[in-house]
Amino acid sequence: MSATADGRSLSFVRFTLQRSIWIGTLNRKAARLSGPQRLTYGDVVDSPWTWTRDGKAVVFTSNRGGSLQNMGGIYKQDIGTETAQALTAGPGSILIVRLSPDGNWLIYATTQGVSTKVQLMRIRIGGGEPQPILVSESFAGLSCSQIAGGTCAISESDGKTTTVSAVDPMKGPGAVLFRDKGATSANISPDGKHVAYVIPDTPCRRVRITDLHGRIEADVTVAGVENLNSLDWSADSAGFFMSDMRSNESRLIHVQRSGASQILWSVPWPTDLYGIPSPDGRYLATPRATYSSNVWMVQEPEDRGRR
């Protein structure tokens, strides 16, 4: 921001963030992403979180109708279409959305204002009245398996340790599964057999895989990365989609349990990339951000102060 010497003109730069959702096709081993097509449009910030069980639609949060900070709406949009269906919208901010194991409900975490409490809610996949599940004072993450009779898991951290507990979308809180200081990003696999999270080293280059009770199955060192961030399981529970955030570049990668990785997409600036696979593993939904800036000038009217 700058002003002229006489104080009658003021110029400033206005920055605008847009984030849309793109859908790409994965090859059989999820090692290549091809033919990406844009799904959502507009001067909005959209974040994909899950898919419908049939793999025909993406479920995402958006600030449509709100501010940049207020991701208060959940939407569903079929691939190949241009119109999103609003499922719920409110004054709060939605942190994460997951599909229930039976595919009939969306489970989401939401906050209100400056409160540190997080409300876990459910809403039918077709929309309707949101229903409460539980309240968390130390919410850190949420994930759900994708098999009939499977469970969801909530991570809660007090700053010293992280507790991972089962959550039944209909009955509420379940038993504590395990505790581990580094499990803040704990993510249950689609087949409901494993949990994975980024080990909080400096820098982060390892992934821990455990069973549902925290017993370590493997610590995987990912080859050729600088700093791992997000983690989402592949649809077959055989690998992960992760963000490798570098000093001047970010990469969306597919990681095998052996530690081998393949670059799917990259951008020339540091940002958190992630990918959400469709239930059949054919497609990957990713957010793609663009930034624009314009210089604006405000001038005092020539006749201001005249009578």
Spell out the CATH superfamily.
TolB, C-terminal domain
Q: Using the coordinates shown, work out and report the CATH topology.
A: Neuraminidase
Helix count from the secondary structure assignment: 0
Mean pLDDT: 89
Cα distance, first to last residue? 31 Å
The CATH architecture designation is 6 Propeller
The CATH class is Mainly Beta
- Uncertain segments are none
List the domain count as a whole number.
1
| Secondary structural class | mainly beta
Largest beta-sheet details? 5 strands, antiparallel
Shape, per Cα inertia axes: globular
- Total strand count, please? 25
* Computed CA radius of gyration, to the nearest angstrom: 21 Å
Helix content class: under 10%
Please, could you describe this protein's structure?
- This protein is mainly beta and 307 residues long.
- The protein has a single domain (17-294), classed as 6 Propeller (Neuraminidase), CATH 2.120.10.
- Helix content is 0%, strand content 54%.
- The chain has strands at 2-3, 9-26, 33-38, 46-51, 57-62, 73-78, 85-89, 93-99, 105-111, 118-124, 131-136, 139-144, 152-157, 162-168, 172-179, 187-188, 195-198, 206-210, 216-221, 228-233, 239-245, 250-256, 261-267, 276-277, 283-299.
- β4 and β5 (57-62) form a beta hairpin.
- The chain is globular, with a radius of gyration of 21 Å.
- The two termini are 31 Å apart.
- The model has no long low-confidence stretch (mean pLDDT 89).
